[in-house]
Amino acid sequence: MPNKRSGGGLSSTQQAAKFLGVSVLAGAVMAGIALPAAGALGLAAKGSVESFDELPANLKTPPLSQRTTILDAKGGQIATVYSRDRTVVGLKDVSPYMQKAIVAIEDSRFYQHGAIDLKGVLRALNKNAQSGGVAEGASTLTQQYVKNVFVEEAGDDPTKVAQATQQTLGRKIKELKYAIQVEEELGKKRILENYLNITFFGQQAYGVEAAAQRYFSKHAKDLTLAESALLAGIVQSPSRYDPVNDEAEATKRRNIVLQRMAEVGDVSRTEAAEATKQPLGLKVSQPRNGCITAVQGASFFCKYVERVFKSNPVFGKTKEDRAKIWNQGGLTIRTTLDPQSQNSVEESLKDHVYKDDKVAAASTLVEPGTGKILAMGQSKPYGYGKNETEYNFSVDAAYGGSNFGFPTGSTFKPFVAAAALEEGRPASQEYSSPYQMQYPSPVQTCDSSPWVNTRQEKLENEADSEKGPYRLQKAMELSVNTYFVQMISDIGLCPVMKMTDGLHVRQGNGDKLPETPSIALGAIGLSPLTMANAYATFAARGMYCSPVAIESITRKAGDERKSLEVPKSTCSRAMSEKTADTINTLLRGVVDSGTGKEAGLTDGRQSAGKTGTTDSRKNAWFVGYTPNISGAVWVGSAMQNVEMTDIRIGGVYHGEVYGGDTPGPIWRDAVSGALEGKPVETFNIVPIPNPNPNPDNGRGDGNGNGNGNGNGNGDNDGDNGDNGGQADGGTDGGGNGGTFPNPTFSIPENWFQGQTGGNNGNNGGRG
């Protein structure tokens, strides 16, 4: 049995013999002799390979992982993301001092020997045998490069990294063979260039360009003699010679490099001596990796872009393929984010909702007709600390959002109206719209099983003064619950399903909407991006365009850039132009004289929209648009556990929160800033017949021509409590205006799917 040291390792004699075996093998290979590993040299030890000749002939060098830069639509940088912070540069962009320093300290005979330095092997063998350990290595710079390739190929897999760096004879043999191949194929200059780009310099910096930026905030081509010596010295042990954490040790190591450069004649002894007297002169740039560093509050949009990339097959057939491309980086991604719009959204959110408020707010803007996401922000910043979150409240769960989205309240009602118009119902459609009624039953679904109100449940409008008959325009302005329940009973659920399918309205978890009448009252959880994009279809006169966040991607490959295919917005007709124009006319009334007056723009631009507030005031919405921008604002608790009554939001006290008084102003200010300096466009308005007002109840015609007798109805957003508090019939109508009672209608238990829990505890499906 071979003798072992007390520590369990090989004795110094055995280590020397093992080292000699590799050295002899190296010499044999250099002479062109292929020797079996299991033979005279006794190389069949654990960790070796069966035969040197059986190794693959070519070293596969993966593309070096680099930083990816994410840009806005104007070319401004949003953030840089990377698995490894690296910017590949050519040798011409590296200081000559740096080139000489790394060669002098790592492999001073680099230009004299081949892939293996036999003199170095023998020198190291002698020294290690004398010391009884491994006091000196004999790897050439070429061998070190090959080892780094193995590490790079291992990526972030700790098991593969361990295999790539394990001190076994088998790995050493592979390293030797590939080093010979690399020397033959690349030549010294290219090997040096590759080595400088692949090696680790500590402080998360891979490659000399990243290291120069990290330690000195300059380019690698501008490094001085002293700076170059410092960086070259770090490579042997990035943790031990880290100048940020141990200046004394790093200085000592730098001076050793300078001395070695003088010994080999790269610099004069005088130059080296002068350089040793200089301070380290660090000007450290902190690593800025990831979407958390994004400018203008665009962290959530940045993460959305990342998730789009990793989930879309256009970027790779499998999830693993896409993740590999993302991690390798070197991408320049130009997005659809408009900096003016993003800044406006962020400023509006900060003005109206504080990050330490009990509730949060999220806002998303999109461009009608293109699907481009222009802005995405929320009141609680991206992060992991107090009053921060990593959940993107604007998007579906698949893209980092809540599990189910958030119940939308009355903002769903325009979808019901659009479905009825497509079915041929007139814009002047009238229903009795009583204050209180039983849910109609049965209600036809898309299959042969109608929905039946088995529990004989009732619903009510917001206030007892809200009672019909109402026509569509006034019912939309007042958001009359019973009107839209009667409408969905009239046309059935299938036309509504067809409409929402055309608008790609899905629950926050990706499921289709359930065929239950509760959808008329906004009981199902949706995301702000879904709502903003669906309303953009109205602005685009019925053309739905899928949301897109990426304009173009280029990938650096060597000295060239290659364009990658990116997913495009797909547009399809979701409704007729007449239907869309009619909805635009109806929703203009909501902003002009209905529950959304506080969201109205003041610069003469036409706008349309709808408010929504859910049961117990746990969610408040405003979704609105102009002809050239559409946006949704949600305010509420991500956990769905805060009732927004007797509450301060953004420093303002609210007895009760409504869709018009909190989300509405956020939308108004965000859109006003986003459109500043942009062309003013107009809707294609259609005439909607209004019958003569009934003189008995003081109802106006919705255009300010009230004929009231003092009993006007308040403009209350009746579905879930959004109250405008304006006298029915506009400024000319008599009457006492509306009151703001709590929502009192109930929803049958079997009307919606209970949705509780998830990543952040969101509850879905409230009425």
In short:
InterPro entries: Beta-lactam/transpept-like, Glyco_trans_51, Glycosyltr_51/Transpeptidase, Lysozyme-like_dom_sf, PBP_transglycosylase, PCN-bd_Tpept. Residues 594-615, 683-767 are annotated as: Disordered. The chain is α+β, with helices and mostly antiparallel strands and 767 residues long.
Task: Describe the fold and architecture.
- The protein contains 20 helices and 24 strands.
- The chain is α+β, with helices and mostly antiparallel strands and 767 residues long.
- It has a domain at 89-277: Biosynthetic peptidoglycan transglycosylase-like (Penicillin binding protein transpeptidase fold).
- Helix 14 runs antiparallel to helix 19 (577-593).
β-strand amount: 5-15%
How many helices does DSSP assign? Answer: 20
How many angstroms separate the termini? 80 Å
Task: Give the biggest sheet.
Answer: 5 strands, mixed
Uncertain stretches: 1-55, 695-767
CATH superfamily of one domain: Biosynthetic peptidoglycan transglycosylase-like
What is the tally of beta strands?
A: 24
- Helix-strand category: alpha+beta
Stated plainly, the CATH topology of one domain is called: Penicillin binding protein transpeptidase fold
Mean pLDDT score, rounded?
82
Organism: Streptomyces lincolnensis
InterPro entries: Beta-lactam/transpept-like, Glyco_trans_51, Glycosyltr_51/Transpeptidase, Lysozyme-like_dom_sf, PBP_transglycosylase, PCN-bd_Tpept
Family: In the C-terminal section; belongs to the transpeptidase family. In the N-terminal section; belongs to the glycosyltransferase 51 family.
Keywords: Carboxypeptidase, Cell shape, Cell wall biogenesis/degradation, Glycosyltransferase, Hydrolase, Membrane, Multifunctional enzyme, Peptidoglycan synthesis, Protease, Transferase, Transmembrane, Transmembrane helix
